[in-house]
Amino acid sequence: MITAKEAINIALIYMADIYPNKSGFELEEVELGDNHDHWSITVSMPDNLSSPITVLSGSNRKYKKIIIDSASGMVKGMQIRKL
After folding, report:
1. Cα dihedral: 73, 75, 80, 83 (round 10)
2. Which of 1, 36, 63, 77 could join 81 in a cystine, given CB atoms 3.0 to 4.6 angstroms apart?
3. Which among 69, 66, 70 has a CA at the least distance from the CA of 44?
4. pLDDT, tens digit, 9 for 90 and up, residues 28-67
């Protein structure tokens, strides 16, 4: 099984690969699945298309949850993480 640190690294590399023109990725959450079969890693990134409301509220970031297989280290999926 891969470690949390390895899963975080995989998630950050994945985000950089699929968003090559973005920077400023930040780790937000790390969770091992109930059956220990996957890691859920939440990463945020700047939202360049923020509305005035989100800018005023200070929440001008997008959140993505990356699901990583804990045995193989392969990315199984990515979801929008809503707060």
Report:
1. 0
2. 63
3. 66
4. 999 999 999 999 999 999 887 655 555 555 568 899 999 9
68 contact partners, CB below 8 Å, separation of at least 6? 2, 7, 10, 11, 38, 39, 40, 41, 74, 75, 76
State the pTM of this model: 0.85
Residues β-bridged to residue 39: 32, 68
Three-state secondary structure call for residue 25: coil
Residue 60 is classified by DSSP as -
Determine contact, residues 21/58, Cβ cutoff 8 Å.
no
